[in-house]
Amino acid sequence: MYELEAERVAEIVRERGYSRVSLQFPEGLKEHALEIARRVRRSTGAEVMVSANPCYGACDTADAQAASLGAEAVFHFGHAGMLEKTEVPVHYVEVRMHTPLRVLEDNLEVLERRVGLVTTVQHVHVLDRVAEMLRSRGFEVHVGLPGGRVRHPGQVLGCSFRCAKSIAERVDCFAYIGSGDFHPLGVALATGRRVLAFDVLTGEVRDMAEKRERFLRRRWAAVARARGARSFGIIIGEKPGQRRVGLALRLESMLESRGYEAYLLHLSEVVPDNLFAFRKLDAFVCTACPRVPIEEGSRFPKPVLTPQELEIAIGARDWESYEMDEM
Ligand code: SF4
How far apart are CA 54 and CA 38, in angstroms? Predict the structure, then answer.
């Protein structure tokens, strides 16, 4: 598989006449980085650099850093295209994963009649096949259309569940094809529908209902802790696809108009060490990647809320209208 990716990259390097490029990989693919760099270098003669910084999503392109080192383009692996304006061209190289469907075929009885299909970019290539198989077994199947930062039918991102929301009214349940809990949990929260996660790595089927309840209890606890806060740090992400300055300014005015202290903090990596110096603040709200408060929140000593959770904490929104933060 990686041989193929290296050849595709080499072809583009030759076609465009690049003499220096940078390769960027998410953590799960970094182990292949050196091999791909070696192949591209050998096959094109171009200078090939590998970005060793962490990379979490298609929003997180290293174009500015690469440009500062004289690279003429970035090859960004593992995510579907997202950003259009970049300092040097960014070529997104999607990587498809082997997706065994046995876990779905063996457990069709858990599905209801009208099924919505959702997945992540690594598995989008199987959705047509899955839809055909389900239809042949009598299910009514729906797949949401892409738009905004989503490129493929049925694709969900940690910051966009629009493919799921657009068909939620027409389905009885969602079948998520992929791995991990974060994306199917997000679909359950964003749509209110039953979500069955068919894990193609572990072979398990998980109903997200209980995890959804547990998740909401955890977030309720974070909101409750922030209720007594008087001062807030408003986190603005510096990564190219996470810069929501307008939202941060709106939250700042909302806080100040209600008598709270608010400070705008911009940073690239939203991790506890980078906020240590600001520990006198009572709580934080994150306008960068929505996964930070949701998945990493418990690592921070102070509550880190999503913008919607902040609104709940200060009485500007009801808990009943809890929503996922999306971009
Ligand atoms: S903002 Fe977060 S969830 Fe969205 S693409 Fe970037 S890393 Fe992924």
Answer: 21
Judge whether residue 3 has pLDDT over 80: no
CA 1 – ligand 1 centroid, Å: 25
Task: Return the structure tokens found at 163.
Answer: 């493919």
Residue 164 amino acid letter: A
User: In sequence order, what are the beta bridge partners of 118?
Assistant: 176
- Asked if 132 and 160 count as a contact pair (C-beta separation under 8 A), the reply is no
Q: pLDDT tens for residues 91-101?
A: 999 999 889 99
d(CA 285, CA 274): 14
Which structural domains are found in the chain, ordered by start? 2-93 (3.40.50.11840), 102-207 (3.40.50.11850), 222-321 (3.40.50.11860)
Q: From 27, 53, 55, 56, give the residue whose CB has the most ligand 1 atoms within 8 Å, as the site to mutate.
A: 56
Q: In the chain, how many H helices and how many E strands?
A: 12, 13
Report CA(118)–ligand 1 centroid distance (Å): 17
Quick check: helix, strand or coil at residue 289? coil
Q: 279 C-alpha vs ligand 1 centroid, how far in Å?
A: 26
Ligand 1, atom 3: closest residue by C-alpha? 158
User: How far is residue 270's CA from residue 288's CA, in Å, rounded to a whole number?
Assistant: 8
Closest CA to 35 of 56, 10, 13: 10
Q: What angle do CA 223, 227, 233 make, to 5 degrees?
A: 80
Residue ranges around ligand 1 (CB below 6 Å): 56-60, 157-159, 241-242, 289, 291
Where does the pLDDT of residue 5 fall: very low under 50, low under 70, confident under 90, or very high at 90 and above? confident
Task: Collapse the DSSP code of 309 into the 3-class scheme (helix H, G, I; strand E, B; otherwise coil) and give the result.
Answer: helix
